[in-house]
Write a structure and sequence with these properties.
The chain is α+β, with helices and mostly antiparallel strands and 429 residues long. 45% of the residues lie in helices and 19% in strands. The protein is elongated, with a radius of gyration of 33 Å. The relative contact order is 0.11.
Amino acid sequence: MDVSVENTGGLERRMTVTVPAERIDQEVGSRLKSMTRTVRLDGFRPGKVPLRVIEQKYGLQVRLEVINQVVNSTLQEALVQENLRPAGEPSITPKDSQPGEPLEYTATFEVFPELSGSIQYGFKVTKPLVEIGEDDIAGMLDNLRRQRATWNAVERAAQSGDQVTIDFEGNIDGAAFAGNKAEKMPIEIGSGSMIAGFENQLIGVSAGDEKTLEVKFPDNYPSAEVAGKAASFAVKVHTVSEQVLPKLDDDFARAFGVAERGMDGLRQEVTTNMQRELKGLISSKLKQQVFDGLLESNPIEVPRNLIASEVQQLQSQQANQGADAAALEANAERRVKLGVIVSEIAKQNQLQIDPDRVRDLVETIAASYEKPEEVVQWYYGNQEMLSGVQSAVIEEQVVEWVVEHGDVDVTEQQTTFNALVEEAKQSQG
């Protein structure tokens, strides 16, 4: 078997394989001969059909079957021989061949980039140092109180933190637009639920007031119809209500499912959850920095077909419905590049997926559900979901290895839990 490989540009390779005629003809002859013992044809006794008759009737079919099988087997042999790793299925183009002639075909494919021994580091990362204090816990308990808050109508002007119930109708240059009006809609002033400038203009209104609000939609607003445009909203105020927070007592703890130890139990659960969240926030911040550094330090070309496949996967996810095509492709390319780099780091440093960490991550995910034990069982019974967790774990292991053993300048920075949470929110959009 002769093999030649041509670099057609970038990561694309065209491999030509020539298989000796004897390999094809011998296999065809062997199969046809064995058929004489099993084929039944009118006019011939079982097992007595002449070989020439078998050849006339089945020769072409058998030859095509043999060629197909030989192409599949020799393709793998050729790839191993030439030390090539195709990214995706090769495109096969066979040349016409007659009995007694060599079989020749070409396989066109992209290969994974070669990174062995060339991973570069030399970038900087900042590692947050955070301690969860009493103020952080008190703030989280206040958040829980606001989740259980009630509203009492008041006979005064609205203040920040109040809830106003309004009718509104908006227009842009005198014309209506999709979603431009609502009736008796409750809005908490300062919650950020409306576009910038809307809520602040409600400070000072009282029940029965009518007012026109002037606002501008952000340039990146999801609806292109209104993005970046100025709008006027005619508002009618029905009620102004102030927030009434529940007391921090055992009844409050029971409302959050903590029946034992009352508020002490709730505080402990809140602290545990915050510590779990903090661990994730620190890990995510380090991961983002390390991944950015690896991409900048290791510019690589990746197969286009892998990017296309990743785009399709992203498009199927709910969060990416309607996403900009260019942004989607850029994200897909980033993910593919990182996949190659992370895989190579893991390979070079013999990093294996830690099953204990996989279990811990699954249990962490499951902890937010009502029946965590069932969620854990479901993950371990669903290979696709479990593979996603395993990928996340090996990424964490790679990040840790890079920070600890790579040529990376690590600076520790004191910060707060709330600052880290806010930073994470802003990075998510």
